[in-house]
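User: Can you predict the 3D structure for this chain?
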Amino acid sequence: MQIRPLRAYVFDAYGTLFDVHSIMSLAESLAPGQGAMLSQVWRTKQLQYTWLQSLMMSATQPRDDFAVLTAKALDYAVSQLMLPLDVQDRQRLLAAYDTLAPFSDAVAALEALAPSPRFILSNGTRSMLESVVRSSSLAPHLDGVLSVDDAGIYKPAPAAYALAVAALGVDAADIGFVSSNGWDAAGAKAFGFTTFWINRDGMPTERHAAPPDFILDNLTSFAPLVAALPRWGPVP
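Assistant: Here is the predicted structure, written as structure tokens:
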């Protein structure tokens, strides 16, 4: 496999750097016996809504941002599971997205990439992303945050990935894109990034697109791999 020297790295946020299921203990305290299922249904519906909204956008169906979709996905999950959550409980769960726990291997992975630029590119709103980064230990190891709101469409639309190319000023193939979401890695590969799929759950590769360039179990194995790849210095 021929890999061009990578000049910058772009990470998905939710599920890759930040554990979306770190809300599970709160969910369990609010809905005993249903916390894990609530977290899973919420996340599944949240992702489905981003894809559906990208497809359905029109003059009569405007695009909701990720904060709105996250709230709607929570409402769906609560309804599906028939949970007796009140308004205050709902707000506590939504607020938890501002303080999601980073994965334990995230800091070391980001540190190992310095001095190359390290950005986030996420479906989240800028406010959501800035809040979760600020509350975490990752802030000193990130050089920028990009929200798909600036493209007006969600990943895996090419216009969303193009934000990273524009921000960094380098070719897509010179950017290492890191995501734990198979569909995101597929979209990034189709766009032209060098892709690293962090396959934490041991899922099969997607069949509708080319496979990612690298498949790893976690971010712990990411740093040694990158160290062995050709790298350029930071973007001027």
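The radius of gyration is 18 Å. Strands lie at 8-11, 118-122, 144-147, 175-179, 194-198, 214-216.
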